[in-house]
Model the fold of this input.
Amino acid sequence: MIIEPKIRGFICTTAHPQGCAEHVREQIAFVRAKRPIQGVKNALVIGSSTGYGLASRITAAFGANAGTIGVCFEKPASGNRTASAGWYNTAAFEIAAKEHGVMARTINGDAFSDAVKKETIAAIREECGQVDLVIYSLASPRRVHPRTGETFSSVLKPVGRSFTSKTVNVQSGVVTEVTLDPASQDDIRNTVAVMGGEDWNLWIEALDQAGVLAQGAITTAYSYVGPELTYAIYREGTIGRAKDDLEDTALTLDARLELSGGRAFVSVNKAVVTQSSSAIPVVPLYISLLFRVMKERGLHEGCIEQMYRLFAERVYSDGPVSVDERGRVRMDDWEMRSDVQAVVDELWQRAQTGSLTDIADLGGYREDFLKLFGFGFPDVDYDADTSPDVPIPSVAPIEEGV
Ligand code: NAD
Done:
């Protein structure tokens, strides 16, 4: 079939297998051109197929020659539907990892479930015995609680008051005003249940009890802070409550892992274009202004640049991991620089439909968005008849998508 992008709102419902493979190769090439990282033998990446998790897996495998076990929740192709981008990314990653001579195994299923935790532990035992790095990079709209069976759906809402702000339709470039109603107590509870720290804690507990966490193991999860412009919808909104919970969990886990010489911390990453960040109201306008300012200053980074810097310069560099007053690694240091934020603030005041071409990097945003789904790569022939059926080598073919 001929696979073209089909964009519906903030999601693209198709993905291109060769394009996704190209996206993975691009990230691998970036890491391989850098100084190798010492210190990771085997990593477990939960949320390994797109965005920050995929970049973490690539950095571990190709920057540190680590074996990786990935957990993700992706769909294979079926009928005339393509597979999801994360499916194609994972297939391409595994093939490249094999060529590179490092172990790679993927578990495709619901990471929140006990069954997937069990399956992952069995895979670790089989492949490498223990893992010394656990990356927790899930971004999900819902979670079924493994003990109670309750389904929680996360929402992106302000807390305490409604919030009115500019926002952009990235595809059309039209700036409008959006008003978001405040969250209910249930909305907050649900969002914390999905995106907070409980599941991360359950993972570490399960891995530790099963004896598959190596002595001195490190675990990290990802968070975001951002500027005041987005506080109401992000840091002080429902998702911010979940991130507070995740960050508190890091402190508890750190105390636990320190006993065996390990560490747990949250890394506050910069804003990038991913499937998850595209879904947040207001944030894409901020990102397109931020990209413009950071690119002009030579400070621009995507997922792979951030994750390589996290591994090479923060976690596996000489000396202790440097953290802020709340125990967090700050990979958003360049984004939050006062000179960067001052310009973004000023551009924000001027942002309207007609001015965006001059003051924002909407083109860069759209390009990154299409790349998430494997579109826009010059070496891919998008007019060629392409089979959407691509297996992930380590995922059994009978796997019925999920
Ligand atoms: P993403 O949407 O690109 O990736 C999410 C991953 O989670 C995918 O691999 C997906 O398969 C997996 N996943 C989702 N539900 C799952 C489930 N039930 N079981 C197994 N796997 C599941 O998201 P992202 O933007 O890379 O976000 C990852 C983390 O980084 C999140 O904690 C996010 O808050 C944080 N973060 C993102 C940004 C940003 O700008 N995107 C900035 C800072 C921090």
